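Fold it.
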Amino acid sequence: MKKILLLIAYINFVFVSKTQVVFNEVYPSPSKSNNEFFELYNTDTSATPMSLDNFTIVTYYKIGNNTGFYVMDLPNLTIAPHGYFVGASAIPFSYQNVSNSTAADFSWNDPALGSNNGYVRMWQLQSGSSADGNPDYDPGTIPADFNDFFVPHNGSGATYTIFLYQNGKLINALIFGSGGYNSVIPEIIAMPPLFVDMSGSASDFWIDFSNYGSVPVEKVEQNTGTDNGYVRTADGVCGSWDKSSNTVSYSPQLTNGPADAYSGVISVTAIVQKGTLATGSTIVYDVISAPSTSFPVQLDVYKDDGPSLLKLDANDVYVASNTETVVTDGPFTTWRCQHGGGCKKQCRLY
């Protein structure tokens, strides 16, 4: 089921959609002769390519008693509207049943990566000097021809946890592999904040993992095995992932297949009908168009009380959910209380 998050900020209604750039393919378990790679997809329909200079990928690792994060600052390149962007551990690169492909935009082992505002760094949890910007982590050594950026972590929970950021804001979170969790695993939530020093003019930022228990995630419960990974079944469609196999193949820089003519886009309308202190206001929201394969769509309404406006976080208050199984099921109406926090008038919002 697809989920749409709706945040209420004061008397205004804000629809928060999925980000324009999302992961489309991840190949985290190559054989010894193959290369890791990932593909991003840009769902934007504008005519202007999007710069990836302010995008960051963070992966969690747990190897024995050592835990930490790999951080990839993406280079100053662009992704076209409805286009693809591929990063690999080498160019040419080999992957499941394909040898010496050149379908990559950059290699994270390229010595020239730094000159193009990109890098890969390793941060290991341990008390060290704060001179490097991370008082709770020390830098690790990245080996030559690094082919384990998507390193599996052992123990409970998903095998792979992958975060994508734009301007320091989390925009796509993936949890892949078996383990029994439907959210970011507790050991990541318990990790100290991580400082990310971005290259060039992109803004540095801190990652506070303490509220990641409530962030929306996409997941696949199957483990990859060797020479496998994960593929969206249609370009950019939320939650539509499969484990790669003989019948589910990779297609870097090529379409995974659109859901239909809408190419996976779900359009939502939402308005606030302002009332009085006595009556309260109402919020009316509806899916007005979407690919038939996107249904059912669940619309979740939250009151935006958290520290980050327009972003779901742990302090936002859940209000209501409604589900459209076909596009004609809506619209839905939810009351918005005008009495403020701690309302004791049994308003429907609370």
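Residues 22 and 41 are 5 Å apart (CA to CA).
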